[in-house]
Amino acid sequence: MPFRNRKIFILYCSPAGSTRHVSAVLEKELKNRNADVLCADICKEKESGNLLQQIRQAAEQGILFIASPVYVNRPLPQIMKFIEQLPEKTGAAVPIVTWGCVSSGIALYDMGKALKEKNIPLLGAAKVGAQHSMMWRSENPLGKGRPGPEDDKMLRGLTDALAEKLQKSPLAEIPLSALAYQPPERHAEMEKLSLAAAKSHMPERKTDENLCTQCGICAEECPVAAITLSPWPVFADHCICCFNCVRICPETAILSDMSPLEERIRSRAALLDEKPRTQLFL
To answer: What are the φ and ψ backbone dihedral angles of 27, each rounded to 5 degrees?
Structure first.
C-alpha cells in the first residue's frame, strides 16, 4: 500500500468549479486506496495557519497536490502566495492546472519552480482541459463539458502512476524542464504577462442600483472574498476577475458585456491550438 503512512493534501482554488471537480476526483480515488487525505479550498480556508501547521507536521511523509486554474497564462496569485508560505523540504508535490482550452500558459512551470525553490521535489504534474469560465453564456464554449469522463480517467491514471513511483527508492522526480513545454519565445512572452496587468483590459462591471437588493450573495460566493457591500458591491484589489458575481447575481444587477472578450478568446485559442488538452507529466 504505497500511500500508507503518507499524509495527502489536496489544496486548490476553484472560482468556476473545474479545479474543484479535479480535486474531488483525486480525493475519491486516493480514499479508495485507503490514503489519509485532507482536501481544502485554500482561497476559502479561514485557518490557513492551521493547514500549514499540519503540512509542517507531515514533514517528509506529506504529498501535496496543489491545483490552480490558469488565469492570463499563470496560476492564481493566491496559489502562488500559499506555495511561498510552505515549509521547506515538505515531502513531495504534484502541481495541477485546469485551463479553458486557450492556453495552459506557464502556470505549471511557475508552480513547479516555486516548489523547487522550497526544496520540495516534483513527483508529477498534470494539466486538465476545462470549459472556459468566461463563456457561460455561450452555446458552444471552448472546452464544453470538460473536465469529462476521459479527463477523470487520466486523473485516476495519475494516482496509479504515483502509487507505483512511491514503491521505488530513491523517489523519481520530474525535472522542472518537463513543465517548460511552451516554445521558448512563447514562454518568454508569457513571463511578461500577469493578472494584475490584464485587469485593465477586462470588461467593466457595473451595478444597477435599481436592481440590486443588497442580498450579499455576490460577497458570500466570491471565491477570494474580494467583494463587500457599501451599500452596493465594491471590488477589492485582490479580485481575480472571475466574473462569478456577474454569473450568480439572482437579480442580474451586476452587468458586464463579455462579447468582445469572447471574440478575443476564440481568436487566441485558434492561434495557439494547444494540444493535448489533458496531459500527465510523470
So the answer is: -60, -45
Determine the Cα–Cα distance for residues 59 and 91; give it in Å rounded to an integer: 6
> Apex CA 240: angle with CA 235 and CA 245, to 5°?
55
Q: Do domains 7-181+274-281 and 204-256 have the same CATH topology?
A: no
Alpha carbons within 13 A on the beta-carbon side of 246: 16
Cell output for 179: 513543465
Q: How confident is the model at residue 59 (pLDDT cuts 50, 70, 90)?
A: confident
Q: Which residues of 211-228 are buried (b: 16+ CB within 10 A; e: fewer)?
A: ebeeeeebbeebbbebbe
Second CATH level (architecture) for the domain 7-181+274-281:
3-Layer(aba) Sandwich (3.40)
Tell me the pLDDT tens digit for each residue of 244-271.
Answer: 999 999 999 999 998 888 889 999 999 9
Class of domain 204-256: alpha beta
Specify the DSSP element, H or E, that contains 67.
Answer: strand 62-71
> 115: helix, coil or strand?
helix
Domain assignments of the chain as residue spans, ordered by start: 7-181+274-281, 204-256
| pLDDT at 90 (0 to 100) | 85
